Amino acid sequence: MITAQNLSLFFRDGQYRLPVLQGISIPIERGEWVALTGANGCGKSSLIRLFNGLNIPAGGSLTAAGLNLRSPENRTAVKQHIQLVFQNPEAQNVGSTPYEDVAFGLENRGLSPGEMEKRITRVLQQVGLAHKSETDISALSGGERQRLAVACCLALQAEMIIFDEATSMLDPAGRSDILDLARNLWRQGTTILWVTQRVEELAESPRVAVMGQGTMLYDGDPRTLFYSSELPGQLGWEPAPVISIGRLLQAKGWPLRLLPLTEQELEAIL
């Protein structure tokens, strides 16, 4: 789905070029779940905006959904395949109701009214908002607005959805709903790039990529990251309770492959 090789990106500040990304290489296969993390200002948002054509790399090579993103036409076309769900739920809605919001993108694609209605009904049902299709968007909760943003992505038949810290402004129940929705989509074949700074969400991801100051510091499995790497400590991460217990087990000689990452794995051990 994504093949990025030695990507660089610069922003201009007057006569100076400020480096934002330096030598980033990362492949993402179709149907994969990758969690991307790093401190604020490390370049995460700049990188994901390269993936769907919002930014243009200064150097390196990048293909997304089989399209070379050096081409302006391809940067426009890739948005059909790769969609973003942003951090702020209120910044993504253009319609006055969920039905109108999903319809907006479909109208721009020139779908017939009959096909639009079928697709809108299906995706609102898929995200659990069918019963609120005609509700005023201002009456929706933050979690419901994020689910609506996902519905808009699904209506456009996105092959990959990038969640850019999409749960950071939600309460625990809303976070859980969006994470469960993303996991269901992943199980159905959608490629997911999950951008987060929550350690527990990283631990539950099959693959974690860690950025720092515009470079890629780590790309691999979470068990190695949390139990065999000094990176979490260097970055000042507060370990999740499950990881803290796992480190006690590690100190007593438990092998890496048995150390827990999730509450379910810890429960099985206990």
Automatic annotation (TrEMBL):
Keywords: ATP-binding, Cell membrane, Membrane, Nucleotide-binding, Translocase, Transport. CDD domains: ABC_cobalt_CbiO_domain1 (cd03225). Residues 4-238 form the ABC transporter domain. It holds the Pfam family ABC_tran. It comes from the Bacteria. Belongs to the ABC transporter superfamily. This is Energy-coupling factor transporter ATP-binding protein EcfA1. It comes from Paenibacillus auburnensis. The gene is ecfA1_1.
